[in-house]
Write a structure and sequence with these properties.
0% strand, single chain, mainly alpha
Length: 81
């Protein structure tokens, strides 16, 4: 039995799918970069229409970001004097 989607249902479903895919992509990318394997698998399997993904991004991905050290760039004139 094939579901019969009306144009109104499709117009409502399309933004929800796009919303979910955008948040899922960002959350999966952050989980992979932070080495959170369990989160990556959970985010990949569970479909929560972006809710779990937003929670991961806001709460859990912030603390483990690695900052790159800044190098002091000085000119040759600064080193002479």
């Amino acid at each position: 039995m094939t579901p019969n989607f009306t144009p109104q249902v499709l117009m409502l479903l399309l933004p929800v799918v796009v919303w979910s895919l955008v948040w899922k992509g960002v959350a999966l990318w952050k989980a992979a970069r932070n080495g959170h394997t369990a989160w990556f698998v959970a985010l990949l399997i569970l479909n929560t229409v972006g809710i779990l993904e937003i929670i991961y991004i806001v709460v859990f991905s912030k603390g483990n970001q690695v900052e790159t050290p800044r190098r002091d760039v000085s000119t040759a004139d600064d080193q002479k004097g």
